[in-house]
Amino acid sequence: MKRVTVVGGGLAGSEAAYYLARRGISVRLVEQKPLFYSPAHTSACLGELVCSNSLKSDDVYGNACGLLKEEMRLLGSLTMEAAAHCRIPAGGALAVERESFAAYITEKIQAQPRIERVAAEVCTLPARGEGLTIIATGPLTSPALSADIVRRFGRELHFYDASAPVVAAESVDFSHTFTGDRYGKGTGDYVNCPLTKEEYDAFVSALLTAEKAALHDFEKREIFEGCMPLEIMASRGHDTLRFGTFKPVGLYDEAGRRPYAVLQLRKENAAGTAYNLVGCQTNLRFGEQRRVFSLIPALKNAEFLRYGVMHRNTYLQSPAVLHADFSCKTQDDLYFAGQITGVEGYVESAMSGLLAGLHAAQKVLGGEKIVFPRETVCGALSAYIASPNPDFQPMNANYGILPPLVGYTGRDKKEKRRLFAERSLAAVRKISRILPSLV
């Protein structure tokens, strides 16, 4: 019987299991929840989003992550299907109601007759010949399995990730806000909390002197630039936030004035009863978060439904361990997927699971080996994690990893990005036509 074991029920593991099952392959999906929970997980559902509820831009022709989403749709992504079903307004971003999103993925997996879900903790990697296995245990892989990975492959790398607070909508003082998306893009889904120079100065001063939560559980404290805590960003210069998270560019209030600085709020759920503090991931102590953020006029009496937290993310030294199809260089029946491979972000993690499942299915079914060209975002990310790199760090979807356009000499950024997208999607459509049929 054709069977694959998938370890981990996050976005990557769910994608891999779903792809395999729909190609007629039996899957044993091993997920430690609800027996054990990582420090960041609380729900027994599969596909739980532990940080933001945003999957970032949905602009296919103007953003690399938006393009990656369309590539995944063409390949039958479960994540993209769930996101479409659970989408909530967020301007040009693709944001979801996290509980219904995870519930949708869980229902799809449990309704698939070829997937057997097993609640258990996997502490060791399988040996060669024990059956094809995909390890998708995520950035918070259990200590036992992490130790075995270190034993098998050598030095483990990790960095710190942080999430932003969520506040109750009824506690926001909307008289000190205005709605609108940056540059007028979208449908006015963001709530903007403006600050004067004096208010901004006071906020930054409080942020820099606030007490941080202890990180005594972990030894190495490397922070990934893409998830930089607000207080770390502020420490790089008094105006750093005004050129990043709090930048007022492209935002104007009802009177047509551009504020000195702006904190944006984004809906956390479809009902609009909760708001996420966009880009405000932090490691301040909970009481300090309440004190510092209440200096923003709109949040003076804010009720915090969830405080920002910081946790360790683990990833492999993938260039030394993995091929571009996510299989191990030393064991061809062992694959890895998700953020443990060194891709960074919800969408990127799901993509790696989708591709690991795709490549594993080709192996099990005896199909031809599929190579996604670097001209596609998924192909470029796959190549990145497998290419020699002495300073390997987690990578998001971005145009910088794509090869240049042949023969294009123009300087129009929008046109260049459109051409990137057309080139990429043409390649993915071609691949999608030779994939095994659904059964």
Question: Care to give the gist of this entry?
Answer:
The chain has helices spanning 11-21, 64-74, 78-85, 98-110, 143-153, 197-209, 230-234, 286-293, 318-321, 346-365, 377-386, 413-432; strands at residues 3-7, 26-31, 54-57, 87-88, 93-96, 115-119, 133-135, 157-162, 166-168, 178-179, 191-195, 261-267, 274-277, 304-306, 310-315, 334-336.
Keywords:
6-stranded antiparallel sheet; 5-stranded parallel sheet; 16 strands; alpha/beta; 12 helices; 439 residues; FAD/NAD(P)-binding domain
Report on this structure.
The chain is an alpha/beta fold and 439 residues long. The protein has two domains: 3-156 and 316-432, FAD/NAD(P)-binding domain (3-Layer(bba) Sandwich); 166-311, Elongation Factor Tu (Ef-tu), domain 3 (Beta Barrel). 31% of the residues lie in helices and 15% in strands. It has twelve helices and 16 strands. The strands form four sheets. A six-stranded antiparallel beta sheet has the order 10-11-12-13-9-14. Strands 6-2-1-7-16 form a five-stranded parallel beta sheet, with helices on one face. A three-stranded antiparallel beta sheet has the order 3-5-4. Helix 1 links the parallel strand 1 and strand 2. Helix 1 packs parallel to helix 10, helix 2 (64-74) packs parallel to helix 10 (346-365) and helix 2 runs parallel beside helix 12. The longest helix has 20 residues, at 346-365. It is globular, with a radius of gyration of 22 Å. The model is unreliable at 216-221 (pLDDT under 50).
